[in-house]
Amino acid sequence: MLSFLYARQSGLDDPVRLRRAESTRRVLSLELNHNRDVDRIHGNGINTLDIEVIDGRYMLSGGSDGIIVIYDLENNSKKPQYTCKAICTVGRSVCRHVHKFSVETVQWYPHDTGMFVSSSSDKTMKVWDTETLKPAEEFQFDGNVYCHHMSPVARKHSLVAVGTKDPKVQLCDLKSGSRIHILQGHRGEILSVRWSPRYDHILATASTDIRVRIWDVRRASGSLFTLDQHNGDKSKASSEAVNTAHNGRVNGLCFTADGLHLLTTGTDDRMRLWNSGTGENTLVNYGKVVNESCKGLKFTVSRGCSPEFVFVPCGSSVAVYGLHSGELITMLRGHYNNVDCCEFHPDYQELYSGGKDCNILAWVPVLRQPGIEDDETNSKRGGTQAAINPAFEDAWSSDVD
Amino acid sequence: MSYNYVVTAQKPTAVNACVTGHFTSAEDLNLLIAKNTRLEIYVVTAEGLRPVKEVGLYGKIAVMELFRPKVCVRTHPEELSLKQASSVRKYRLGLTRVGDLLLITGAALLTRCALNSQVIDVQFLYGCQAPTVCFIYQDPQGRHVKTYEVSLREKEFNKGPWKQENVEAEASMVIPVPEPFGGAIIIGQESITYHNGDKYLAIAPPTIKQSTIVCHNRVDPNGSRYLLGDMEGRLFMLLLEKEELMDGAVVLKDLHVELLGETSIAECLTYLDNGVVFVGSRLGDSQLVKLNVDSNDQGSYVAVMETFTNLGPIVDMCVVDLERQGQGQLVTCSGAFKEGSLRIIRNGIGIHEHASIDLPGIKGAVKFLGGASSRSTASVLELSRLVKHTAVTTHTHTTEPYCTVVVFTCVCVQITSVSVRLVTQDSKALVSEWKEPQGKNISVASCNSTQVVLAVGRVLYYLQILTGELKQISSTEMEHEVACLDITPLGESAGESSICAVGLWTDISARLLKLPCFSPLHKEMLGGEIIPRSILMTTFEGSHYLLCALGDGALFYFGLDIQTGVLSERKKVTLGTQPTVLRTFRSLSTSNVFACSDRPTVIYSSNHKLVFSNVNLKEVNYMCPLNSEGYPDSLALANNSTLTIGTIDEIQKLHIRTTVAEKEVKGAVYSMVEFNGKLLASINSTVRLYEWTAEKELRTECNHYNNIMALYLKTKGDFILVGDLMRSVLLLAYKPMEGSFEEIARDFNPNWMSAVEILDDDNFLGAENAFNLFVCQKDSAATTDEERQHLQEVGLFHLGEFVNVFSHGSLVLQNLGESSTPTQGSVLFGTVNGMIGLVTSLSESWYSLLLDLQNRLNKVIKSVGKIEHSLYPSAAVRDVNSHSRTLSHTHTHTHTLTLTHSARKGAWTLLVSHCDVEAATDDLLWRRGLSTLLHHSF
């Protein structure tokens, strides 16, 4: 650390290097931490989490019980130990607009915390006003809504891509409040949709038809291309498996922060990394990524680290992989039941995960303890031992299981 | 709400890049130096480097390459620099690397190619049919060299003519070799290799292993010699030995590396001409060095010709007032590695010493007036002879040499303590002499080219200098003894003064008398008990002033009406501690006053406001202006033992003195400060207060743990400001009764801090990783606990420089009695690139006025490369989550200060025309204040 600080101070290194190095170190030291709790509100499994990017302060969660909760992640306790408070709940008792069935996806409006969007198995997608906690808009669909996504970069359009039981991907316009477009091509349920963080018109969709399609929504015709796990090598695939991304339902999509790559997960227990510009399978081998989810899987990537990491729910733990190396770095164990979603906080390199055990767990980097030299100095001088930091008393052996 | 003003005191001095070539014209050999956001253009002449122009850019210069027919500078908002853009331009094609993305540009973007691997360096190759790039890249197996051909038709990259896998693990640079050799040289940590597809040649000279080679420059156009510089500041020459084959082809036979010698740690090298090399340095002073054919005694072929001061990287600094005169001096920890030094910086006027003579016992200085012939022929030798001569003649009179000699068309007036003598210059013949009737000693005298006024005790005599005669016109007796007097002619009186200024003993007064009748015009009681020692009438910018210096170094100054002799606007400043002598001189056709004392000061006027500027000299007893062939526009300065001749700087600037020191830091204690007589330290995530006990032990009194890594500490009273590695700033209060810390408020923005400072009780200044300054405010009046806990970010300013340290203090002389500066407080900052700047608070009205001015200036000033000013600050994104926060409540003003005169005028006109409708009366007011502010920026 000192060498990084010195290099930054003397201008030998770009200041970003220290930041990347420290971010990476912190991600590698993620642990379940006694200092951090998240209020337990949900009475059933947690399907989805989202942290807003404006202040990095508020987190949404959506559960199988149909409830949506907003948490305040900020530490106002003036102490290292704190609990992320649920500041409001869209629950059955307080709100008649609440989703009737399981909330599958929640997402903050990317440019303003005054609005968020939720979609549910009750065949609706609702656009909520954060102030009043009342829906400003409601979209009805014919089947269960599995997923929706708003572009994090789009300024010119405010389209929500929606994936439902229907093979057609729906595009809803928040400005007009209407469904303005459908994207046809898939032959199965749409389990995941994601906009590119690089181009506001590029959309990726994943379906139970084991295919992933990349769309340019400006074009009226079909998709730009379909991801092919064999990179066009026909000899490796049976005829019906041509242009497939996985050998099982594709239920998770995630672009890397720069938008140059796309990760997909499938029920074939594989995760694949694709070049999002060419559709080429980079053939990074992550090994077996256990995937039992029959619905969408919400996984995420780190941001601002070097190298970057993937956090993917894997049974009752969250697996951390090197994004480009494919190496399994660690398994974050703590949930009592399957994990369905996880969300990375890029400002502080923290990870929040939600699972069927109704818990949201916060994974927080280990702090550096006061230097050894410091303690030596104390003992040498015969001074009273420094008061022990209560935060360090537990010695971080804090995994719940 | 607090408004702050950010201004540059010292521009960045660290050199990032340099190139040589014909830029300003086909004949001029130019050196172009990039200093972060600035570009300096020099012409290389036989005498050395001559500056041509300096331009500021709204961006950081990452890479600079010459591009025929003109130079191309790649500037970019931070976004690119984070990804280490680099560009090379040859073939009239541009090659830009942004991370692992290569962009080929002609007039527009031709093609791009993601290399999907970590690119170390990339260059175009010479002598290929199609444009070919050669690059080093890294993959998990190691580093490799690959070439790609750029197909201009298909606009894509095709496989190149050759590649080399598994080059040295630390290979870092590609040097393309021109024809006849072609190919490329790969520089690694331990080896230098040459590749061109057919031939592979590697050498591993032991000398280069010691350190890492960081820069290179081609010496000859044919590519047979290259300069290499390493991290230890050693300069090497790489020689390519050629061999002619039977078929006439020239191929490379061998590579040689020779150590030339030691320079500053080079960031960039460029060969100028005739064996002269510019060594640009980021970690130490840049140098102009000469490469000699023969080595010197130490075996070095390098001789330093010139050194260019670099303050960067300023790792730490503090403001000290060594002379306790209210003027701060800044001590900086500058440089890194072997270039580490402590530098002392102060503000003032510089005297460049041209000659000095040791002349013990100098009691006065000689003043030349009038006669064009005498001015043109006077040389320092004559001067010194004259001084000696005076000494000799006065010696014959066995009196103290009280001498004011006036050279006036070959006649000089010599005043000694016994008489006034008119002497011809050539023959030294005495023409006329005046003595006090009772033979009493003359105590003080003043004369100009036609008049002499002298005092004998309380009696004043007025003499006129006529041709060949001194004629007493009148005399009068004052109430008290005369301490000093002056008859400098002012206004249009053409060499004759109608007023005499007199300073008296006993009642400590300054009086103005009418000449020749000595009738009193005005009497000003100075108060106190210190007698006036020097009085002077002078004109600055058309306004007349009377200056009166006391024996304790204090100076009174007044506005003077030369018709009525009435004094007005009395003001007082302290210049030194010793009796002060005032002398006028002209520099660049404006009049200035030199105050000789233990702290010599130059007094001049700027926008009808007197400015007192220190001179970089120790002590001056006497001074007189000198303008001769040998020493044009010079000053002769004398103290007890030495006569020095020098010229004065045109502009006020910072003077930098270098002392030697080293700096060593160990351990995980990131910051330590004295706090209420105790020791406050930050150790990783903990802020800890130590008490020094009676048993002489350091005892921990209390801790605060709620940080990620507490890197910086600042204190004020019981308050502590903590700068965290990545969690912005936190304000703690120390509770002495409980012996504990309390968290007061925190800024919840994820700022990666680089320096913090407490502006006042409510405002806190921070500098962060993305080269921004921000101001946070405590909201004491907030109603809820939560609001009180939040430090609100009220200002953000994109500086474009990495700030390492803040320090309260100012380099300008304080308490000068000038209250017209509309700013409060002053915090200096030092950056990695050696920039020193100032942050000061100002009122809302000033803020909006200056913001208006800035916006108008931005309309007038055409930026280099057409990068909009508005783009520059808004480009301050944090690379991860790209929040771009709006620039508010802090105004950017740095750039306006570097305007050319005409551009500034343009903006004035704009602004004035805007203002005149509503605030014609206020106009003058703000103009005055504005000029003060602009002036304030040094």
What does the model show?
- The complex is a heterodimer of chains A (401) and B (938).
- Chain A is mainly β.
- Chain A has one domain: YVTN repeat-like/Quinoprotein amine dehydrogenase (Methylamine Dehydrogenase, Chain H, 7 Propeller).
- Helices cover 9% and strands 39% of the residues of chain A.
- Chain A is built from four helices and 28 strands.
- Chain A has helices spanning 2-9, 15-28, 372-380, 390-393, and strands spanning 30-32, 36-38, 46-51, 58-63, 68-72, 82-90, 103-108, 115-120, 124-129, 134-140, 145-150, 159-164, 169-173, 178-183, 190-195, 202-207, 212-216, 225-226, 250-255, 261-266, 270-275, 300-301, 309-314, 317-322, 328-333, 339-345, 350-355, 360-365.
- A five-stranded mixed beta sheet of chain A has the order 2-6-5-4-3, with no helix packed on it. In chain A, strands 1-28-27-26 form a four-stranded antiparallel beta sheet.
- In chain A, strand 24 (317-322) and strand 25 (328-333) form a beta hairpin.
- The longest helix of chain A has 14 residues, at 15-28.
- The radius of gyration of chain A is 22 Å and the shape is globular.
- Chain B folds into five domains: 15-69 and 894-917, no CATH class; 103-204; 209-310, no CATH class; 352-365 and 400-648, YVTN repeat-like/Quinoprotein amine dehydrogenase (Methylamine Dehydrogenase, Chain H, 7 Propeller); 667-814 and 823-842, Methylamine Dehydrogenase, Chain H (7 Propeller), CATH 2.130.10.10.
- In chain B, 10% of the residues lie in helices and 50% in strands.
- Chain B has eight helices and 72 strands.
- Chain B has a five-stranded mixed beta sheet with strand order 69-70-71-1-72, covered by helices on one side. Chain B has a five-stranded mixed beta sheet with strand order 32-33-34-35-36, with no helix packed on it. Chain B has a four-stranded antiparallel beta sheet with strand order 2-3-4-5, with no helix packed on it.
- Chain B is globular and about 105 Å long.
- The two termini of chain B are 27 Å apart.
- At the A-B interface, helix 1, helix 2 and helix 3 of A face strand 60 and helix 5 of B.
